[in-house]
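step: validate -> pass
step: tokenize input -> pass
step: predict -> running
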Amino acid sequence: MTDNYNTITLNIEGGLAILTLNRPKKLNSFNDEMFAELRQAFTHISLANGPRCLLITGAGRGFCAGQDLSDPAVLNPTAPDKEGGNSQGGPDLGHAVENKYNPLVRAIAELEMPVICAVNGVAAGAGSSVALGCDIVFAARSASFIQSFCKIGVIPDSGGTWHLPRLVGRSRTLGMALLGEKLSAQTAEEWGLIWKCIDDDQLMDEAIRTGKHLAKQPTTGLSLIKRAIRESASHSLDEQLDLERDLMRMAGRTEDYAEGVAAFMEKRKPTFIGK
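step: predict -> pass
step: emit ->
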């Protein structure tokens, strides 16, 4: 199945949904139309019966350059409040974060299936933050990550200030955020920022192979793993132990758990249905 939009493409086949940011002449930077289409795509993926894994990538030579700074909401400093301005003058960037970027990051985190990102080129600004908010991140060897917010006097958004310290620690986060230097995919792997750095010509093959594998696994159990790890950041040990108990109770009542145990006992390959 293929759904075509103007700024993205969405292909669903064999349990794997592939969402491609598709503004290659603008390095797939975000604008209002792309956000609207991303909302539609995530709604479709979450409600459809087929998809059990999502792969996000970019068209052309870049993954995503972040916000399209030619977007009218960014360029219009005297817009009234209802159009994104504020009483102090200048655009209300917090409005854009709250209504566009935050919903996208939450959609990735809360999607009840694994989300893979294949970073095929530069991931800058919010493009970097969105990529690093995915569950498993592959990057082409020629790709790079840039926390470019400091270059225009703003802060890392789209979960950047949450994910980065947990991935690479305070010192490296501050270096990336305050200097805005390009980080290679190889270094990103060495720092634990991403899962794997892959040769360019093998990136999509590896990402699709992994996506198809995950699409055949016990999807409900995988979504509970996502939830447990995400919520651990704000929990004490006792709170996390209680959450593990509750999620394990839920997992034990799934059809896939019963199938997994039966397949183990019968020494055969399990057939999971994602329920």
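step: describe -> The chain has eleven helices and eleven strands.
step: cleanup -> pass
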